[in-house]
## 1
Amino acid sequence: DAGVIQSPRHEVTEMGQEVTLRCKPISGHNSLFWYRQTMMRGLELLIYFNNNVPIDDSGMPEDRFSAKMPNASFSTLKIQPSEPRDSAVYFCASSLRDSYGYTFGSGTRLTVV
Amino acid sequence: AQTVTQSQPEMSVQEAETVTLSCTYDTSENNYYLFWYKQPPSRQMILVIRQEAYKQQNATENRFSVNFQKAAKSFSLKISDSQLGDTAMYFCAFRSGGGADGLTFGKGTHLIIQP
């Protein structure tokens, strides 16, 4: 298995631009999680899906952030418009529901200038 | 809401020594899971070890073991015979046993293994 695949690995964009981060979970996993990592706040859960349905988005910082999971093999995290304070590493992780094993992707380092 | 606290921002030991990383957590639940993740400079999050709260026996994985004290809500990680490749950030994490919820992470401990 190729693991959880995230793209791009690095993204540099200008303030105000739209940014889309992508994630392909492990085949067969039915839970998907988006995390954000910053020096100040550490690792924060933004949103998670079970069977493609968003369950808890209370960690999404504001309306500029949105996430979708149109099918079991693909999810996106979109920021529109982006701001410099959105600069962080964004991780996607997947697991089997009711299983305590999580597999993380390699993360996307986002820099907003 | 659960909280996870790692009180050691950074630790440094000599190669081959044993080192213990501390983690405490706060929860009102009785059923939950605890994890230690390693994040090397490559930034990949690697699962080191995990513990189910209902198990009294401490988990071990080769050179890695935990000291799980449920009453004290403590979950420390011991690394024996430390190696240069153990240099990384180490995160303690909590997951509720009630469903497929996300992980709550501590702020991490930067472990440096000196040659």
Note: The longest strand of chain B covers residues 88-96.
## 2
Amino acid sequence: DAKTTQPTSMDCAEGRAANLPCNHSTISGNEYVYWYRQIHSQGPQYIIHGLKNNETNEMASLIITEDRKSSTLILPHATLRDTAVYYCIVRVSASGTYKYIFGTGTRLKVLA
Amino acid sequence: ETGVTQTPRHLVMGMTNKKSLKCEQHLGHNAMYWYKQSAKKPLELMFVYNFKEQTENNSVPSRFSPECPNSSHLFLHLHTLQPEDSALYLCASSLAHLAGGSDTQYFGPGTRLTVL
């Protein structure tokens, strides 16, 4: 079962910030939060990941709450090409390795 | 471009055919993965290879047979598939499939498989 809960869908106006929430209330102390997105029928594209601190890269920012039970992915200036399904994933450690547990994601639609 | 390529991009096969999917990574990674994505279902991990050794098989039927001849190439051999095996098959690679650190997987574009 997925360890994350995300809204099924969201809309965002082009040029505005897109804020995608994710709940992961059962996350353990050493489990990372990863974000990927999947544009229709393509492979998932890595966006960003974090453990405790907020992170920023050229694509997005990741804000993780202090208790680590939720996070928000921020696309600062959404474009039409950002329309995709966004997956919030907790990377679960198991027996010296790990698993990505994918959920059903948030379908983001950027509107012109 | 993620540095992970998959061929073919589309494949239609009959239930009695034998075919193979190919994945190649140009990232210098040591771990490779096969995932299956069926319509309206989350991605499911099928197999993991770490340093050319198979380390995970998530109860995948024997009609799917993986092969990893070196750390850059991964194959999925298919035989006597069923229509319910129709899906998007995704390959991914990462530096090493280990719990420590923040190993990140990079996905290829996928092969869209249709079984008639």
Note: The radius of gyration of chain A is 14 Å.
## 3
Amino acid sequence: QVTLRESGPALVKPTQTLTLTCTFSGFSLATRKMGVTWVRQAPGKAPEWLALIDWDGDKYYSPSLKTRLTISKDTSKNQVILRMTNMDPVDTATYYCAQTTYFYGTGSREDSFDIWGQGTMVTVSS
Amino acid sequence: SYDLTQSPSVSVSPGQTASVTCSGDKLGDKYVSWYQLKPGQSPVLVIYQDRERPSGIPERFSGSNSGNTATLTISGTQALDEADYYCQAWDIYTVVFGGGTKLTVL
């Protein structure tokens, strides 16, 4: 059974760096085609994709947030870490991690996000 | 950037069929996934690769995708299906979500 759990600070100040950890079980990032992605959802808004890391270390970022994001993995610990710099109140949201399985479909990558964590709420305020 | 457009809300009576649509330029050339979000719960994948149901998702959930529109269909809608539904697709190694549709079961 695949499970994921997000952890990190509930409150960060503007300009600070947010570090979130996704700890998972039921799969390994040492296994070909496995991946973990981060998605956030601000109150009343649609989900917004942030970043994805593959079993082979390939990384993908949202173009609009790329300069602020770093995704990394610790395969031995079954963890994926997301860092977001220069936090702003507009970054207040619930942050989710999810498991993906690499799928190359009709000319591009087309995975779905199969299993999600329960999310962690992050508030940015001074 | 690539945009996915959804109607903000859909209402349906219990037992009836609900259709939730997602529109995008040549969306039929991409694979679409659908997610169900209920307050206080984790998102749930209900359809992937346009029409495939993950294990554990009821058969009343189905999907299609052609032209510029993908459709999530819920047959025999139940009260527990009331939720926000979001479509999702990839565009050149970037993931895009639709704006979401609130399904109300009256």
Note: The first strand of chain A starts at residue 3 and ends at 7.
